[in-house]
Amino acid sequence: MAVFAERPHEHPLLRPPPARRRALTQKTVTMAHGGGGSAMRDLIEDVFLSAFSGAGHAPPEDQARFDLSALMAHGDRLAFTTDGFVVDPLFFPGGDIGTLAVCGTVNDLAVGGARPVALSCAIIIEEGLSVETLRAVVASMAQAARAAGVSIATGDTKVVPRGACDKLFITTTGIGVVRAGLDVGIGRARAGDVVLVNGLLGDHGAAILNARGDLALDTEIKSDCAPLNGLIDTLIAAAPGIRMMRDATRGGIAAVVNELAEASAVGVKLDELSLPMRPEVMGFCEILGLDPLYLANEGKILAVVPADEAPAALAALRAHPLGQDAAIIGEITGERPGRVVMRTRFGGERIVDMLVGDQLPRIC
Amino acid sequence: MAVFAERPHEHPLLRPPPARRRALTQKTVTMAHGGGGSAMRDLIEDVFLSAFSGAGHAPPEDQARFDLSALMAHGDRLAFTTDGFVVDPLFFPGGDIGTLAVCGTVNDLAVGGARPVALSCAIIIEEGLSVETLRAVVASMAQAARAAGVSIATGDTKVVPRGACDKLFITTTGIGVVRAGLDVGIGRARAGDVVLVNGLLGDHGAAILNARGDLALDTEIKSDCAPLNGLIDTLIAAAPGIRMMRDATRGGIAAVVNELAEASAVGVKLDELSLPMRPEVMGFCEILGLDPLYLANEGKILAVVPADEAPAALAALRAHPLGQDAAIIGEITGERPGRVVMRTRFGGERIVDMLVGDQLPRIC
Lengths: 364, 364
Fold this sequence. Notes:
2 copies of one chain form a homodimer. Chain A is of the alpha+beta class.
């Protein structure tokens, strides 16, 4: 446990002690850095606190604290969500495990209609990881948190012996506040509603697979990893009757539409020709025999809105830098509840089922 | 992401879909169980939901939700804390990684004066782990959560290939509500205050080391792993002027007193003869050349109270089942701020410094 940033406290005895920040001398993380002693404090102060907080910070407590009345100014319900990140490789075009760990949890909060407030960050490190690698990941976390407007308020580090984990795993947990009166949920879609996405599909999955070096493609495909809370603010303002949103990560768009068809007891009809996708990603999928509907995204949401709000929703998404390629990709129907069908580009129809697993392990 | 239990929702469309819980047929966890598809849903429903929630549960959302006004009935500040658990072995006398993951975070909340409300649970599983092992760990988490009176409200599972992690890691994050008017903190100790612990020291560290089979001791030492929020309620009621509490986990009592000496800019004087400790643990330490002050505990807090409240605090602790061996172990002084000294059993004095690392890796 270690708190990275805390609400300043008025009590004179709680003023920060004189700065004792020490620079790490080691070039790699050792077992002592996870031992709860002075080496761990040095690691936390030099690597984490310097990135996650400003110049001064309060003495470490076992928890971060937030005024409940200040939170209530933003809404009426607290949202709480967690995600573990084990992506391989740690660094890939468009981001790294740190970017992913912040954006993933920010987006989980935002799709539920919550304004993200703060994240916690628990890191498990393999002995021998270079301190430079850790610093780079932490810098990405700090940058993504700034972009999303959240603080990284508390954290924990553990070190395990060489071979007991693969380099670095991060678990982030987020708290946020759900807007009063907003009621979005996976079970709220109704026949006649419209299905939208905010842009090009499959970039994250393709980027990771390419970064693993299994293929030597000419074009570099970048992960779409991004915090979507700003985009979602815009979308909710334009379509206040919005039914549900979900970030299409593991399992891709296909997993989301299947979950929503089942939870809402509706049919979903997708139109393959309207799916926004890079030609490179489509080609990539053809070469590998992958279905792009199942490819992971880290900066894409699927949203369901009432038909009369769809034009405003689409316009709002397209006006946002993270939604320029937004599209209407399908509709909710009363037919075959629980089933997802897709009109193919050849004019036929096929069922889009949920996969048993993912096409790619360690995608996030 | 998967929500394990959620506040029941009034909207008719949000009623749970017909039960589709399916029993897992596999005996070991496969990569597909972490892939975001139907295998993962089956694992979550059969292993996690059945343990963490009652008969019915709402459709899975990306987040758990709590009414802020209901939280405000318990206090004025939200507490938020996280911890990763990598203990080796997974099972040990007195508990397992699941017990530890719940108690650790409950205790982190409680020592800050917060009433624990809910936990999240993110699990990283090595491919090939037996489903029975996972079920046992999850059952321990559910049991510990019931004992502590908290819900496990949301979670995430990831599976990594064989060799990419050692069996199972768990990160829990907790939210709680800090009592209005209560102001405890590591920087609040003052000269003249009294230092207490709630019982026998070092049991967890000794139990883990013994469970690793490095020694073949006749006596089985059990971990003291327990949720301390009930005990802490009692303590705060008896000593409302309490300055600080801290659970003495990694780094043991020694790490806590050193942190408090530095943060409060005070001296701490401990009395070795008053340290409550099992003869077996003392013997264990002598054999191995370990210092019991640095041994990890998972059911022990160190508390600092004003001298006039010390008798009531001690009596309250001793009246609680988890505090029967509570003792006053030292005092806060104005001498040598930042320093911890101990009167030894031979009548001398020695400095108790913070270790660079821990004596034992993967202790929690």
